[in-house]
Amino acid sequence: MSINKIVKAGLVIVAAVALFSCGTRRSPGRAYMPDMTYSVAYETYAPAQQRLEASAKAKNELSPFYSGMPVPGTIARGEMLPIHMSSNRDSAMSAAGIKNPLELAKVDLKEAERLFLINCAICHGTKLDGNGPLYNGGNGPFAAKPADLVASAMTEGSMFHVATFGKGQMGSYASQLTTTQRWEVIAYIHSKKAGGSTGAPGMNADSAAAASAKPVTADSAKAAAPKG
Ligand code: HEC
């Protein structure tokens, strides 16, 4: 075999390897280490639905798929610490004594009013009298009569409990409003109860009925006064 032939044969082999090694095949070829080829997929930012379906399929608590819900107890950045309550009756009763943790004079009542009008006024009405467009004196599409919030004897804490867990035909607003926003709305309601637009002194007002259910403080006595 001449040198020339060897070179030519070599060129043919190189060309053949070059031709056959490049294809349009996208598969990784034979999986001789399947663990590596088909690794458990953590699709961190995959669409939630896809993740939920995947974990339903896996039917396994140890499924690596994220459920789409934050871990229980998660607190959003900048959010106030949660008030520990639950939906049960005892918790609803004990909520009565909880004070609005917001510094009332600092509550932005314009913002609180905006939140109330968006979330609550459709039922409770812009006058808070329980006659919003959804109820409309019984002619609206919502059959249950929303409570008259001005006349309501509820304390701030109980109202917060209602806004968080709902009551009767009213649902929870915990997923629409953050803890702070719910307290803002409660502050707004109480500013209306006190009858003042400035609100500040009256916002702490618990109604006389509510005040009688717990120790009357100088504050609550004073606060109840503007109503009369
Ligand atoms: C879909 C209509 C609807 C919406 C929206 C709604 N509520 Fe209600 N709410 C009701 C009804 C109906 C009741 C009466 C429930 C009962 O007593 O069985 C009620 C009762 C209440 C009570 C109890 C008052 C009392 O004295 O018993 C409070 C407090 C309250 N709502 C606050 C709110 C707040 C705050 C919002 C907005 C975040 C809101 N509601 C949004 C329908 C609604």
Please provide the count of β strands.
0
Name the average pLDDT.
78
Q: Mind telling me the CATH class of the largest domain? A: Mainly Alpha
- The arrangement of helices and strands along the chain is HHHHHHHHHH
Specify Rg, calculated over alpha carbons: 32 Å
Beta-strand share of residues: under 5%
Report, as a whole number of angstroms, the end-to-end distance: 119 Å
The helix/strand class is mainly alpha
**Small molecules in complex:** heme C
How many helical stretches? 10
**How would you describe the oligomerization state of the chains in this entry?**
single chain
Q: And the CATH topology of the largest domain?
A: Cytochrome Bc1 Complex, Chain D, domain 2
Low-confidence runs: 197-228
Globally, the shape reads: rod-shaped
Q: How many domains, in number, for the residues? A: 2
Q: What this model shows, in words?
A:
The chain has 228 residues and is mainly alpha-helical. The protein has 2 domains: 38-70, no CATH class; 89-227, Cytochrome Bc1 Complex, Chain D, domain 2, CATH 1.10.760. The protein has 10 helices and no strands. The chain has helices at residues 3-21, 34-37, 48-58, 89-94, 109-119, 121-124, 156-165, 179-193, 208-212, 218-224. Helix 5 crosses helix 8 (179-193) and helix 7 (156-165) crosses helix 8 (179-193). It starts with a helix and ends with a helix.
